Amino acid sequence: MASFREERATQKKLDILRTAANLFNKKGYHETTIEDISNELRMTKGAIYYYVSSKEDLLFQCHDLVASECIEELQVIVESNDHPSKKLKNAIKSLVLFIIEENAVFSVINRTNMLSPDTRKAVLEQRDKYEKLFQSIIEEGVQKGVFETNNVKLARLLILGAVNYMPYWIKPRDNQSNDEIADFFSCSLLKSVIK
After folding, report:
1. Dist. CA 150–CA 193, nearest whole Å
2. Average pLDDT over every residue of 2-11
3. Which of 39, 100, 107, 138 is the most buried (most CB within 10 A)?
4. Residue 28 C-alpha from the chain's centroid
5. What is the largest CA-CA distance in the chain?
6. pTM strictly above 0.85
7. Contact yes or no for 95/70 (Cβ under 8 A)
8. How many whole angstroms separate alpha carbon 155 and alpha carbon 38?
9. Distance CA 178, CA 138 (A)
10. Is residue 107 within 8 Å of residue 167, measured between CB atoms?
11. Cα separations (Å) of 34 from 14, 19, 104, 118?
12. Nearest to 128 by CA among 90, 156, 169, 98
């Protein structure tokens, strides 16, 4: 169990990442400075640098936050004994809910061209891991005769492409609850492969 101090440090880091993501979205990555982030949080730049080493590290940490949590949750879904259609529905729903909850952070993680080659490589490895896990659910469904597709990779791209575009249009003011949106997406996209 984490101590109060560890929980506070984790929350502070999340605040920094979310604030940075909001500013990257609002002002642009290149135009946002560490000073802008520290001013927004009413912290010193030194306090920010305690948690991250640079602006590029901030962008990487935003990606790592999303990727780590998504991979961890998807791993649990993949390893469950659920029916493949339930696994796929849960995987889509999980990703949709996470995108809604971390909208600002999700909006900035596609900016891999701003990362150095080594950092970009680490980001792409995380994405590959997530995509392989996600695709394994579709492959399992095809093997068990539950899903029908003659191209598993394109089926994965269709589903993930639809969900991953959400940060660009989903707004907090939308009248539907997060669960309603997640249910709609998971049920609708499941139909693209269900036999």
Report:
1. 10
2. 82
3. 138
4. 19
5. 58
6. yes
7. yes
8. 43
9. 24
10. yes
11. 15, 11, 17, 22
12. 156
Provide, for the chain, the percentages of residues in helix, strand and coil under a 3-state DSSP scheme, each rounded to the nearest 5.
75, 0, 25
Return the DSSP state at 133: H
DSSP 42-99: T--HHHHHHH-SSHHHHHHHHHHHHHHHHHHHHHHHHHS---HHHHHHHHHHHHHHHH
For residue 194, give the DSSP letter.
B
CA distance 24 to 37: 10
The three-point CA angle 167-170-173 to 5° equals 140
Reduced to 3 states (helix: H, G, I; strand: E, B; else coil), residue 169 is: coil
d(CA 38, CA 45): 6
Amino acid, single-letter form, for residue 116: S
- pLDDT tens digit sequence for 13-42: 999 999 999 999 899 899 999 999 999 999
